[in-house]
């Protein structure tokens, strides 16, 4: 039986990172990186399914969950990755597999570019690395923010339309089979909203990350070169009904990775809410063939 899940705080450059840990530390490490607008709580039910075989670390990214940042923290994906890299160094984790979802993808991929020999495998669950994965209608207002160079008008539109309880609920319900919606924990989107989006400070941080997301697209060529040259083991397992990161983004991994495994589950963005067991089975099978 795996040890119980424990909660910890670590300080990296004046940022206090909250993370949970489960599994024997002598086992291979799996880093779980959450996405917008959630936190490590999205892995609350998933991590225990893997903990008999893996040592799991699941941090709250800066700007999310219980992680606390100093007033001068600049919310960019480079800085999010730098903070998580600092946590890994502090915990003396030098080799690991990484599970990337949504915002966790640009963070995890930066970690892989920084230390490719440390990342032994990548599981991408609706974690994008190709422009084909961006659903046009959802991303149009964010791309307008990029085009207008962070204009107040574009920021306010996103504040009033994407940083709302209704928009958060949409991410947990759109694209799921109707009969599966009863499996989705409604408390999750309420927690995500109140903890990570409600209030002016949270809104400004989140819109800063919307604006900075453009840097992830400019990083894609380096990511693709890393895939092509290093050929890391990759499993892309996506909720096929995701209204934000669509299935062509999963299929695109095959362009640069000879042995990429691509699977789909009948779910939306937060696929773990309804298909966590099936995804855990796929992850365990995939990682069973990885050398740590």
UniProtKB/TrEMBL annotation:
Domain AB hydrolase-1: 28-275
Keywords: Hydrolase
A Pfam family of this chain: Abhydrolase_1
Gene3D superfamilies: alpha/beta hydrolase
Top-rank taxon, per record: Eukaryota
Record GO terms (molecular function): epoxide hydrolase activity
Protein name (database record): AB hydrolase-1 domain-containing protein
């Amino acid at each position: 039986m795996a040890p119980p899940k424990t909660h910890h705080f670590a300080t990296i450059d004046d940022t206090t990172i909250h993370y949970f840990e489960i599994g024997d530390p002598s086992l291979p490490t799996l880093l779980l990186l959450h996405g917008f607008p959630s936190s490590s709580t999205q892995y609350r039910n998933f991590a225990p399914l893997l903990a008999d075989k893996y040592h799991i670390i699941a941090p709250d990214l800066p700007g999310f969950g219980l992680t606390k940042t100093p007033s001068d923290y600049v919310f960019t994906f480079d800085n999010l990755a730098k903070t998580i890299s600092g946590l890994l160094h502090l915990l003396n984790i030098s080799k690991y597999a990484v599970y990337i979802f949504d915002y966790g993808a640009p963070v995890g991929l930066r970690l892989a570019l920084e230390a490719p020999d440390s990342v032994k495998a990548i599981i991408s669950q609706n974690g994008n690395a190709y422009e084909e994965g961006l659903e046009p209608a959802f991303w149009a207002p964010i791309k307008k923010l990029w085009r207008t160079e962070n204009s107040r008008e574009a920021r306010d539109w996103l504040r009033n339309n994407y940083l709302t309880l209704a928009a958060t609920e949409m991410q947990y319900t759109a694209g799921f089979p109707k009969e599966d919606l009863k499996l989705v924990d409604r408390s999750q989107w309420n927690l995500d909203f109140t903890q990570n989006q409600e209030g002016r400070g949270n809104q400004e941080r989140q819109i800063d990350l919307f604006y900075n997301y453009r840097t992830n697209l400019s990083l894609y060529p380096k990511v693709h070169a890393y895939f092509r040259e290093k050929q890391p083991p990759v499993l892309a397992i996506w909720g096929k009904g995701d209204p934000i990161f669509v299935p062509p983004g999963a299929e695109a991994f095959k362009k640069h990775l000879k042995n990429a495994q691509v699977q789909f589950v009948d779910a939306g963005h937060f696929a773990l809410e309804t298909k966590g067991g099936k995804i855990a089975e796929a992850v365990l099978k995939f990682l069973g063939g990885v050398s740590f």
